[in-house]
Design goal:
Layout (H helix, E strand, L loop, with lengths): L1 H24 L6 E9 L6 E10 L4 E2 L2 E2 L3 E8 L1 E6 L5 E4 L3 E4 L5 E6 L6 E10 L6 E2 L4
Length: 139
């Protein structure tokens, strides 16, 4: 019972931080994050796995950012344009995925369509208590 309460409080905290970051730093067309679960990895103390979805409206995007841990993104619906560091942008369609290393710069993350929505399923393995997305300074 105690573990469930801690998990609920952790998820609520993550949702609050994500909402605050979006409100302060992200444009109105940014993706909407829904945390599905966060769980401590018992064999790796101080590490959590978080599973979330990101819903992008038509033409929606997320500003350049990074994550503190390993990130795995799977396209559930639509198509996403993704650019990591100085690599060329790539378009991923439903059923395709990519991964990101800790602190790798995610320079472009946007819906490839201006008329249809897109949706990602994301798994993150990150240090416990860390903010899962840090927006990069704009130049």
């Amino acid at each position: 019972m105690k573990r469930i309460i801690v998990l609920i409080l952790l998820v609520a905290s993550i949702l609050a931080v994500a909402a605050s970051a979006r409100a302060q730093n992200a444009p109105a067309s940014a993706g909407v994050v829904h945390v599905l679960m966060t769980q401590a990895l018992t064999d790796q103390p101080g590490t959590d796995v978080t599973v979330l979805t990101v819903d992008y409206p038509p033409g929606g995007s997320t500003p350049p950012h990074e994550h503190p841990g390993h990130t795995y993104a799977y396209v559930l619906e639509g198509a996403i344009v993704s650019q990591l560091d100085d690599q060329p942008p790539q378009t991923f369609t439903a059923g395709q995925m990519w991964s990101e290393s800790p602190h790798q710069h995610h320079m472009v993350s946007k819906n490839a369509s201006t008329t249809a929505s897109a949706k990602l399923l994301v798994f993150m393995i990150a240090p416990h208590g860390r903010k899962l997305t840090e927006f990069l300074p704009t130049k």
